[in-house]
Design brief:
This protein has one domain: Class I glutamine amidotransferase (GATase) domain (Rossmann fold, 3-Layer(aba) Sandwich). It is an alpha/beta fold. The protein is 30% helix and 18% strand. The protein has eight helices and eleven strands. A seven-stranded mixed β-sheet has the order 2-1-3-4-11-10-9. A two-stranded antiparallel sheet has the order 5-8. The chain has a two-stranded antiparallel ribbon with strand order 6-7.
Length: 314
């Protein structure tokens, strides 16, 4: 029987195209959707740089995680559409907390609860770990594993030294490090630390409690824990929820320059992937960040593009 070589080659090429299309479809289905939400400008130059920080995280994830993730950033407290939230494998907040927290505006907490119920991941960085007692405290303890609670937690600036990190996907490839930051501590964690794994832990000095008691500065409970019982304090943690949701809380990040530290940066990038249920690379997410990268997208503040005094105004 004669063989039609032309037809055979056409069928072969068609089969190759189908295989490539199927492979691309599978790869696309495995890609995780990461939603990053930045708060509005806050504090002085180089501090609480939410917009610049989120854009830096986006760039690093796209460079270091390759095809594993699709990253969308929302700036200045812009809230994602329902369909965007509904597809998010993890949602990160880097913003002011309390009444200015993007998640606590309008019905946002209820929207977020819907995504947590289906198993979306959650990451909160620095002030974003702090809801209010009346709005969000219960939910954050449940979803995030812990949160800052006024008259219980404190927010001193101190130099923490993280000598030992636990074996966990978020600490993959991360070497011990330390830094001067506004490391919040004495978080309100789930009862019994259920499902919570401390990641960054250190023993604060007595000087961190030198301020008078106040809603953020000190209280009898934290003094007893640190000064009397000498309990090391957890300033970053990973958690898992019933139903499979994952979360990561990180209390540092007051200073934008901290993201220039390769170990701090790698830890957060790893955590974003882990909470999205994406595979963390064997050596962690390794991305080089330059001074130009850190200087990009800074909010206009006196000293970084905004004049100290606007002409004609006091």
């Amino acid at each position: 029987m004669a063989v039609n070589h032309g037809l055979t080659m056409k069928l072969f090429r068609f089969a190759c195209v189908v295989v490539v299309m199927l492979a691309s479809a599978v790869q696309g289905a495995d890609k995780k959707n990461v939603v990053l939400i930045a708060g509005k400008p806050s504090h002085g130059p180089g501090q609480h740089e939410h917009n610049a920080g989120v854009l830096l995280f986006k760039k690093c994830l796209e460079q270091g995680a390759g095809e594993a993730v699709s990253v969308t950033a929302f700036l200045n407290s812009e809230w994602p559409a329902a369909e965007v939230l509904g597809k998010a494998d993890t949602i990160l907040f880097y913003a002011d907390g309390q009444g200015n927290h993007p998640a606590l505006q309008g019905d946002h907490l209820q929207q977020l609860g819907k995504e947590m119920a289906r198993g979306s991941g959650l990451v909160c960085v620095h002030y974003a770990v702090e809801p209010t007692l009346e709005n969000g405290n219960k939910e954050f303890v449940d979803w995030l594993g812990g949160c800052f609670e006024i008259h219980y937690s404190v927010n001193p600036h101190w130099e923490a030294n993280f000598k030992v990190l636990p074996v966990h996907p978020v600490s993959t490839g991360v070497k011990p490090f330390g830094s001067l930051d506004e490391w919040y501590y004495h978080m309100r964690f789930r009862k019994g630390m259920t499902g919570v794994t401390p990641i960054l832990t250190d023993m604060p000095s007595a000087e961190t409690l030198s301020r008078p008691d106040g809603h953020h500065s000190g209280n009898p409970e934290v003094r007893a824990a640190v000064l009397e019982r000498k309990e090391p304090q957890h300033v970053a943690w990973a958690s898992e929820r019933d139903g499979g949701g994952r979360a990561f809380g990180f209390t540092g990040g007051h200073f934008h320059k901290g993201w220039g530290h390769p170990e701090q940066r790698k830890l957060l990038l790893n955590a974003i992937l882990w909470t999205a249920k994406a595979e963390v690379p064997a050596g962690g997410v390794v991305v080089e960040v330059t001074e130009a990268d850190l200087a990009a997208n800074l909010d206009l503040k006196p000293g970084q593009g905004l004049p100290e005094k606007v002409k004609g105004k006091k």
